[in-house]
């Protein structure tokens, strides 16, 4: 079995969000980069578990990004996975990124493509569905559980107000969310092994982006909290009812 | 030319998020000088014609057994067919769980640029620019869509539903419906009465509650307000509450009208999932809790004392015993 795990880099969750160049670029000054949590904690770890259950499984990682994405890819390799592919392109257009991943997927002939639910910086929740459509494969989004028996996958996914169990045959594209696996920390052996695992760099396929970022902005600051005394809970309820009109 | 809105249903009923999508889509149609149409897939129980009051003039209904369960691949093909037949230049989804599954596929199929997580109407003066949330609500981006057909997935609760007058013409649409490749084995509904992602009011609690046995006062407050319940991540991780209540960076992102946070410190990762709420109320015994900085109203006090009093005061106000 061959699995392709999509991995992206995002600013650390506590990073200061600011913009430069007349609000057209994210200010990377002093930003720590991490593996997008959905990719690391859920989809990659589930893929590693599948390999642990069936050692003949091969895991490839793919990232679409510039050379500065390599530390992230090495960290992902330290967690597990056999080799990584970096498509040498920097883009914020979901379609462009998905098309690059689909190209890698076509060449590798994978049984399974895993993505995270969403990137915590651009919040697209789009790449998985786009890759699936480009490959003309079924797509199960927001998976909280993934089990495999032969070539049949049983996948639990989130739906509004509940969960649903689906069944589909491989090949398949799945986006992973909380529940799929428990986060792991790379160990020393993994870190050492990652240094020599292959990290292939390929040039992007010619693809036209469908969207572009015209500019960024920050939401207006809150006016500040109105504190009500703990002895006067009724006053809070009155404010919520009459002033905020919340209920 | 038209604006086509995907009308999402659950068990035959139109979701609240789709009423927002229709109101929004109708406004986009007005901006562009065209009409808004809707598409519904699978069996429905609601009166579709009545959805005309949200501004849709015509609803294409594809009532096929295979569409009673939502398979993204199948839904995409059918919606693409309807979009082409109706000459849609803008297609609107709610960016709910269904929208997240289908809109990206449709974007590829129609080579139509997608803005997911839109929070405002497009700016169509010169180009077509749509504002969306990025960095988990900590910033926004203006996205320029550079294709003939545009797809917008509107964030739930980002656009106010307006019900006016009118009925929609409901027309059956004969699409080619293949056999789905994904088979549904079972469905289970969450325990809460109000689904979290659709809720107008959310009552949420954190580690300050000390243990799962203390959630009674949280649930009672939620019930009194017809609210959904939510929790912080450590609470879900410790299995005090089901994981489908976990909000934040790695849980659900929600934007209710009112978010009441009880015994939650307000870590940045928690805020990332709730900072789009219209009004935030914080109840915490620590005046230094970071959550107060993001709050509109707050009480510095003990949840075990404040929450039951709040429930009682609301009951009194609503005139229920
Ligand atoms: C990558 C990453 C992603 C994360 N994602 C999420 C996420 O999605 N969602 C999330 O919630 N967290 C997330 N976290 C964890 C987050 O950083 C915090 O650890 C977490 O939100 C803290 O939960 P809490 O506020 O319930 O608990 P605590 O931080 O322990 O806070 C408890 C609060 O309760 C108050 N309190 C105690 N007793 C009482 C009382 N009797 N009455 C009133 N108040 C009381 C305390 O003053 C305190 O402020 C993430 C962390 C990381 C690193
Ligand atoms: N540049 C990228 N390279 C590889 N995978 C990516 C990239 N961007 C996004 N992904 C994958 O697609 C998922 C959803 O991303 P998005 O649609 O941008 O929210 C992420 O969790 C990743 O698994």
Please provide the ordered H/E string of secondary-structure elements of chain B: EEEHEEHEHEEEEEEEHEHEHEEH
The overall pLDDT average of chain B reads: 95
Specify the CATH architecture of the largest domain in chain B.
Answer: 3-Layer(aba) Sandwich
Could you tell me how far the N terminus lies from the C terminus of chain B, measured between alpha carbons in angstroms?
55 Å
Overall shape of chain A:
globular
Provide the CATH topology of the largest domain in chain B. Rossmann fold
Tally of helical segments of chain A: 6
Which strand-content bin applies to the residues of chain B? 25-35%
**Which residues of chain A form runs of ≥5 with pLDDT under 50?**
none
SS content category of chain B: alpha/beta
| Main sheet: strand order of chain A | 11-10-9-12-8-1-6-7-13
Give the helices and strands of chain A as they follow along the chain.
EEEEEHEHEHEHEEEEHEEEH
**Integer-rounded radius of gyration of chain A:** 21 Å
Largest sheet of chain B: 7 strands, parallel
Short description:
The complex is a heterodimer of chains A (247) and B (321). With 247 residues, chain A is α/β, with parallel strands linked by helices.
